[in-house]
């Protein structure tokens, strides 16, 4: 199926309005429903799921330190429109088919409000998972200005729920951000990038079987999902009309498996100002931005001397990353910027020389070092599945950091994929990556390095909550656990991996 590129304008998700707001707290209600939406003008309207009748969901914008309460309401039908594999842990036949739980990705929240995968609930809270504790989640939002996102996190089916449309931006603002004089208002644009595949009738395609199929099963999980069409903010290959001035873009990879290496075909620099966890110390001019699943970056693009020009944002990351298929003219195209609008006023916004201090966490401050492997396994149906530290979701908890303790985790990747590893509750800093001998490790359980330690890429030098752990490398990260105690998770953010055992609970103890 060939759809025209740049046929539809980029939609901007609406800002969610609070139900109640006073000096002490803010209250939102967010409904999840099924509806039809136009994802491309040449396609029939597509059945999707969304928050508040919108795919992607509305942007939730809060102030740093604002106490926010959100009631996430499941108003979805009882039947899923995507294929469920009931052999996947958490999605057994005795569980309701449609279940949801919401995680604000990158937020530091009490564990009962974190969206634990087993804290799911059905329509009207009729049935709830074993770890369900409350209907109304609390977010204290004490983080600095940052681009976060909210999405489904239900055990065993989050890949399907997110693919169906359950994702949106969650932004924190603060005084420091306002003082930087960045492009703002209509010159600040969130971009949520995803890949999908469509059936001829415009409906979403998601495979029922891997290749080759599993004959014993009617529906089987697939090792990864790679779509053939790129969407931004829920539109296929959209265009955005811009003025010849500076714009701030918040980039989010919300795909199931696909990584993006984003460039502008004009060859110009993008000025990166933020990582997953907020502003960097100094902006950096980059020709390309690499985003694993769930990673974010904020960039300023300057269109000032480009009036009348069209600029295409392209992608050249193989899928799956790094050894999969190269992109083609469809998957290599993201969106188009048309510098066609007249300048409405003089552009006084700036690319600041300095934003916030970045204080590296000292390795000496770590009280614990953990060596954690990323493993490849086969199940009884001959399907590949990935594990963290070679343990399944239900194995006893082995990561139990103390409140306030600093730890270094060595992520030892024994697989051939790059895995975006996300840790809930905290942000971390990347110390380095280092090549090692995988064969020797598998035989002798010894890390034999084959090259020098490589510092994080310039675009990763800041707070992170998701890190690309590359094949044949040990990736070291350092973090301090807190300010809450309780039960959280860490996992690979390739949705198909996370749903099939590549996720582990951890508990922060007093």
UniProtKB/TrEMBL annotation:
Transmembrane portions of the chain: none
Residues of the Plastocyanin-like domain: 45-175, 206-315, 375-508
Pfam (any one): Cu-oxidase_2
InterPro entries registered for this protein in UniProt: Cu-oxidase-like_N (IPR011707), Cu-oxidase_2nd (IPR001117), Cu-oxidase_C (IPR011706), Cu-oxidase_fam (IPR045087), Cupredoxin (IPR008972)
Domain of life of the source: Bacteria
UniProt family annotation: Belongs to the multicopper oxidase family.
Protein name: Copper oxidase
């Amino acid at each position: 199926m060939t759809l025209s590129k740049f046929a539809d304008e980029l939609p901007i998700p609406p800002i969610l309005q609070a139900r109640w707001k006073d000096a002490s707290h803010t209250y939102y209600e967010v409904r999840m429903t099924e509806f039809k939406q136009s994802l491309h003008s040449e396609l029939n309207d597509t059945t999707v799921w969304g928050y508040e009748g919108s795919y992607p969901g509305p942007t939730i914008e809060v102030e740093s330190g604002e106490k926010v309460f959100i009631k996430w309401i499941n108003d979805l039908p009882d039947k899923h429109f995507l294929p469920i594999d009931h052999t996947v842990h958490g999605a057994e036949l005795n569980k309701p088919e449609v279940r949801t739980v919401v995680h604000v990705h990158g937020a530091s929240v009490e564990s009962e409000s974190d969206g634990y995968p087993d804290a799911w609930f059905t329509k009207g809270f009729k049935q709830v998972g074993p770890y369900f504790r409350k209907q109304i989640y609390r977010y204290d939002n004490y983080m600095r200005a940052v681009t976060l996102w909210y999405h489904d996190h239900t055990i065993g089916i989050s890949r399907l729920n997110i693919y169906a449309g359950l994702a949106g931006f969650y932004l924190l603002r603060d005084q420091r951000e306002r003082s930087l004089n960045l492009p703002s208002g209509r010159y600040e644009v969130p971009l949520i990038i995803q890949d999908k595949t469509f059936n001829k009738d415009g409906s979403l395609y998601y495979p029922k079987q891997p290749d080759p199929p599993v004959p014993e099963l009617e529906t089987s999980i697939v090792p990864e999902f790679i779509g053939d069409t790129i969407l931004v903010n829920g539109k296929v290959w959209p265009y955005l009309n811009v003025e010849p001035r500076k714009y701030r873009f918040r980039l989010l990879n919300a795909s199931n498996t696909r990584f993006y290496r984003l460039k502008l075909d004009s060859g110009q620099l993008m000025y990166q100002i933020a990582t997953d966890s907020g502003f960097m110390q100094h902006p950096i001019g980059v020709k390309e931005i690499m985003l694993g699943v769930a990673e974010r970056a904020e960039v300023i693009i300057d269109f000032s001397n480009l009036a009348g020009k069209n600029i295409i944002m392209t992608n050249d990351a193989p899928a799956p990353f790094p050894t999969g298929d190269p992109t083609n003219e469809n998957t290599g195209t993201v969106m188009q910027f048309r510098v066609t609008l007249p300048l409405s006023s003089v552009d006084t916004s700036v690319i600041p020389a300095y934003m916030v201090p970045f204080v590296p966490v000292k390795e000496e401050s770590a009280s614990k070092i953990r060596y954690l492997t990323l493993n490849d396994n086969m199940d009884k149906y001959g399907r590949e599945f990935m594990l963290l530290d070679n343990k399944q979701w239900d194995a006893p908890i082995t990561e139990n950091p103390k409140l306030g303790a600093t730890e270094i985790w060595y992520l030892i990747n024994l697989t051939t994929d790059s895995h975006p590893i996300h840790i809930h509750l905290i942000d971390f800093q990347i110390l380095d990556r280092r090549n090692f001998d995988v064969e020797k490790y598998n035989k002798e359980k010894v890390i034999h390095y084959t090259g020098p330690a490589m510092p994080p890429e310039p675009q990763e030098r800041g707070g992170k909550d998701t890190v690309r752990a590359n094949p044949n490398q040990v990736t070291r990260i350092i973090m301090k656990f807190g300010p809450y105690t309780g039960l959280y998770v860490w996992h690979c953010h390739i949705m198909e991996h996370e749903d099939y055992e590549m996720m582990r609970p951890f508990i922060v103890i007093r």
